[in-house]
């Protein structure tokens, strides 16, 4: 994955969508709050349609597909217009499928060997997942010695309170989190609340 994508915003919003209209509203609200990227997770039936809608209706936000766990989903996400792919972990098939889309790819890792294996394939930007249960800031600090050229987007258990600790690490490009788009705000179409959360997140760095 091109590091520039990770540098777009200090926080990569991880969004679970139940409604494509709400996804468009959330994307606009994030952008208004200064967040230039959105990860729509393939956890619901409407996710692919939402990616398509956001990509065409909110062209100024970079929309990616998250929770990509199969080769088929990687292709579907690319066809829907995703600009990048995020996976919680990585397999050979997934790596092959993601590479064949030509899209920037942010695969999840939680161990040194997983990170080294992906580095052998030329992947140097990684999602550290699940960040907090896997050892958090202390773990990332410890592996920066042997793996200084890798960059991470820690995700999983990140909050506005612990995000600054991650963002202070030289190997952390941005953090990922679902707190910018609470499900109740999405279902109530409370986009003003999402914009406020986005503005605070954008100011984290
Ligand atoms: C993810 O899907 O990447 C994580 O589940 C997001 O984790 P969070 O809900 O703890 O932010």
TrEMBL record:
It catalyses: 2-dehydro-3-deoxy-6-phospho-D-gluconate = D-glyceraldehyde 3-phosphate + pyruvate. The keyword rRNA-binding does not apply. Pfam families: Aldolase. CDD domains: KDPG_aldolase. It comes from the Bacteria. The keyword Lyase applies. Keywords: Carbohydrate metabolism, Lyase, Schiff base. GO terms for molecular function: (R,S)-4-hydroxy-2-oxoglutarate aldolase activity; 2-dehydro-3-deoxy-phosphogluconate aldolase activity. InterPro entries: Aldlse_KDPG_KHG, Aldolase_TIM, KDPG/KHG_AS_1, KDPG/KHG_AS_2. Pathway: Carbohydrate acid metabolism; 2-dehydro-3-deoxy-D-gluconate degradation; D-glyceraldehyde 3-phosphate and pyruvate from 2-dehydro-3-deoxy-D-gluconate: step 2/2. SUPFAM superfamilies: Aldolase. Its EC number is 4.1.2.14. Belongs to the KHG/KDPG aldolase family. Homotrimer. PANTHER family: 2-DEHYDRO-3-DEOXY-6-PHOSPHOGALACTONATE ALDOLASE-RELATED (PTHR30246:SF1), 2-KETO-3-DEOXY-6-PHOSPHOGLUCONATE ALDOLASE (PTHR30246). This is 2-dehydro-3-deoxy-phosphogluconate aldolase. It comes from Amycolatopsis pigmentata. The gene is eda.
């Amino acid at each position: 994955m091109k590091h520039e994508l990770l540098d777009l915003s200090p926080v990569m919003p991880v969004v679970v969508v139940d409604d494509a209209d709400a996804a468009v509203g959330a994307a606009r609200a994030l952008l208004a709050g200064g967040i230039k990227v959105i990860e729509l997770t393939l956890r619901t039936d409407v996710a692919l349609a939402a990616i398509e809608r956001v990509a065409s209706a909110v062209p100024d936000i970079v929309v990616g597909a998250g929770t990509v766990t199969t080769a088929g989903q990687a292709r579907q996400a690319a066809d829907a217009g995703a600009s990048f792919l995020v996976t919680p972990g990585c397999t050979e098939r997934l790596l092959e499928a993601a590479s064949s889309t030509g899209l920037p790819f942010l695969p999840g890792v939680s161990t040194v060997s997983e990170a080294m294996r992906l580095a052998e394939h030329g992947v140097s930007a990684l999602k550290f997942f699940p960040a907090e249960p896997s050892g958090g800031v202390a773990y990332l600090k410890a592996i920066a010695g042997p793996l200084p050229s890798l960059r991470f987007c820690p995700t999983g258990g990140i909050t506005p309170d612990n995000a600054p600790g991650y963002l202070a690490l030289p190997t952390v490009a941005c953090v990922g989190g679902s707190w910018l788009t609470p499900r109740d705000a999405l279902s109530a179409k409370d986009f003003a609340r999402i914009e406020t959360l986005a503005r605070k997140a954008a100011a984290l760095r």
